[in-house]
Amino acid sequence: MKNLFAQGMPVTSPNLTGTPWGGYPGLLALDFDGVLCDGLQEYFHTAWRVYCRIWKKGEVIPPEGLAEQFYRMRPVIESGWEMPLLVRALLWPYPEKQLFSDWCGIAESIMEKDALSASIIGPRLNEDRDEQIRQDENSWLAMNRLYPGVPERLRSLLNGPVPLRIVTTKEERYARRILERQQIYLPEEWIVGRSAKRSKHETLRRYLPESGQEAAIWFVEDRLLTLQAIRRYPELASIRLFLADWGYNTAEERERARAEGIQILSLQAFCADLSVW
After folding, report:
1. 271 and 185: one domain?
2. pTM above 0.70, yes or no
3. Torsion angles phi and psi, residue 216, rounded to 5
4. Gyration radius (Cα) of the chain, Å
5. How many domains does the chain have?
6. Which of 84, 184, 235, 247 matches a 20 to 30 Å C-alpha distance to 44?
7. pLDDT, tens digit, for every residue of 17-65?
């Protein structure tokens, strides 16, 4: 079946009966990093390069074990520009327990001490990524791998009746390059990223009329704090929230999500039909 939504025709989601959500959503929204793409290797590689440009000019080789520490701490990151700050914090060194409990406070402290901000670090991160892509795009893409089964799942969704959107803090052009390497091509407006300059809950709010009054939005995200933030808005109560257990979150966060009534989604379930979620 062709994607009717892509052709501008009205969409009727199947089986929207019986429960407030029914068997299918009116619109499916997906985070990118930690849901579709595992870019840990690239995150650290780029974060280290930018860290060296800001704090350790001329240094090339990261200390042994730093990458593994960074991978463990990736769940604290909301936006990519924070990653060089995480490298800085790990080398300070702050204890991992403290980083988990007070990452925002630690990041703000580092920025204040070193006269930095998101508006300074973010462009440097993008400049470094663009430099890597210009020099060897294949190597950069190889460090950004879609999770097993995700390419096939995305293709099946694009050929189905449910509208799809990607809602991410990543720059759209990077997400698009990674997807297109797998021959997955989305209309420009289907990926909403950092350049939109709005939070995920605001983007989802804008999708509410699009999904229909009777058909809820389903949103898959790997960051518990993001899902908790969405829940604070009564007008977003119809959105069904899923925490991706294969993404950048911890066992403790998954337990907290369960206790708060947020559904935990496995990669196996994600790759199955929407009716079994």
Report:
1. yes
2. yes
3. -75, 160
4. 19
5. 2
6. 184
7. 333 445 789 999 999 999 999 999 999 999 999 999 999 887 789 999 9
